[in-house]
Amino acid sequence: MARLAVTHERGETTPPHGDVIRLDVRRPSGVPPTSAVLVAHGFKGFKDWGFFPYLCERLAEDGHLVVSFNFSLNGTGPELVEFSDLDAFGRNTISREVDDLLWMLGQLCAGTWTGRVTPGPVGLLGHSRGGGGVVVAAAEAGEAVSSLATWAGIASFQRWTEEQRREWETAGVAYVANVRTGQQMPIYKTVWDDLQANAERLDVLSAAARVRAPWLVVQGSEDPVVPEAEGRALSEAGPGAELLVLEGADHTFGAGHPYPVQEPTPPLLEAAVEATLRHFRQTLRRRRGVSPRVATPSRFGNR
Questions:
Q1: Of 56, 66, 213, 262, whose Cβ has the fewest other Cβ atoms within 10 Å?
Q2: Looking at residue 259, what is its pLDDT?
Q3: Which pLDDT score, from 0 to 100, does residue 288 have?
Q4: What is the C-alpha to C-alpha distance for residues 226 and 228, in angstroms, rounded to an integer?
Q5: How many other β-carbons are positioned within 10 Å of the β-carbon of residue 65?
Q6: Fold of the domain built from segment(s) 6-157+195-287
Q7: pLDDT reading at 301 higher than 80
């Protein structure tokens, strides 16, 4: 399929909790999209990190409306690519991210970026922690999600060390290093409290078992952050899941930040992109003409 020209716009939306979600909308120029993909970043990530702009551009070139966004408490501000609000980063929780996802899904299905016309079948794509989030969101949204893809998606949100738990108990805050920026990034005890209070909701494998949408699980064999076993666990839990293990791929499929746009795409990243394009072609286009249950903003994301 020939690549379509793409229009790119930036925007914002504010859920009921009052914190701004900054977003990008990409769409094929001059051709009304008949399907949409919502893209979620992972821990210490943001929508403009590394491969995300390239991935979103490729999805839009393939004919989808593509919306990527920064979680409301991901720690970046209006400058988009720097962690300038570490307090927000520290206050973030998994429940907040799932609620942000559901709010964005509701806005998308309600036609916020398509002239109040439902854009057609909707797919979700998440990387790393965002992968776990889209699994939970897909399970809760039901028929509003027609397709799912996870890249290096986590099978559990319970990833904190005993040392971090002790720090939360004694000081109320633990710190994680951002190797790229050199920042010590705070994580407040609220993230642990949230996981304990919402353990059933945030059980990724339990949610995976409730996902009925066709699902592509993309996993690197050499991922030091999310082991291959987690990708296999997701694929085994999801009734409609298909596992693709890319031999030799790491957590970001060979990409880094900043992304060198003028250089050839890393082969393993290109393999992940091509597999994802095929997946959404097969699973979203075959559902054209089938109206999804609209995930309205009032229905989701109001916690």
A1: 262
A2: 86
A3: 52
A4: 7
A5: 23
A6: Rossmann fold (3.40.50)
A7: no
AA letter at 43: F
Per-residue model confidence as pLDDT tens digits over 27-79: 999 889 999 999 999 999 999 999 999 999 999 999 999 999 999 999 999 99
Strand ranges (E), the chain: 6-13, 21-28, 36-40, 65-69, 122-127, 147-151, 173-177, 184-188, 215-220, 241-246
Q: Are 119 and 35 in contact (CB under 8 A)?
A: yes
What single-letter amino acid sits at 131?
Answer: G
Q: Is 109:145 a contact under the CB 8 Å cutoff? A: no
- Residue 262 carries which side chain, given as an amino acid letter? Q
CA distances from 248 to 115, 128, 221, 254, 265 (A): 43, 17, 6, 9, 16
Residues facing residue 173 across a β-bridge: 188
CA dihedral 271, 156, 234, 74 (to 10 degrees): -40
8-state DSSP, 126: E
Of the candidates 242, 232, 237, the one whose C-alpha atom is nearest the C-alpha of residue 209 is 237
Question: Bridge-partner residues for 27, per DSSP?
Answer: 7
- CA angle at 219 for the pair 142 and 269, rounded to the nearest 5°: 105
Q: Whole-angstrom Cα distance, residue 301 to residue 56?
A: 24
Secondary element (H or E) of residue 190: helix 190-197
Burial 22-56 (b: 16+ CB within 10 A, else e): bbbbbbbeeeebbbbbbbbbbbbbbbbbbbbbbbb
| Euclidean distance between CA atoms 251 and 97, whole angstroms | 21
Residue 26 one-letter amino acid: R
Domain boundaries, the chain: 6-157+195-287
Tokens of 212: 């009925």
Per residue in 167-193, pLDDT (tens digit) is 999 999 999 999 888 999 999 999 999
For residue 275, give Cα distances in angstroms to 149, 225, 231, 246: 10, 22, 16, 11
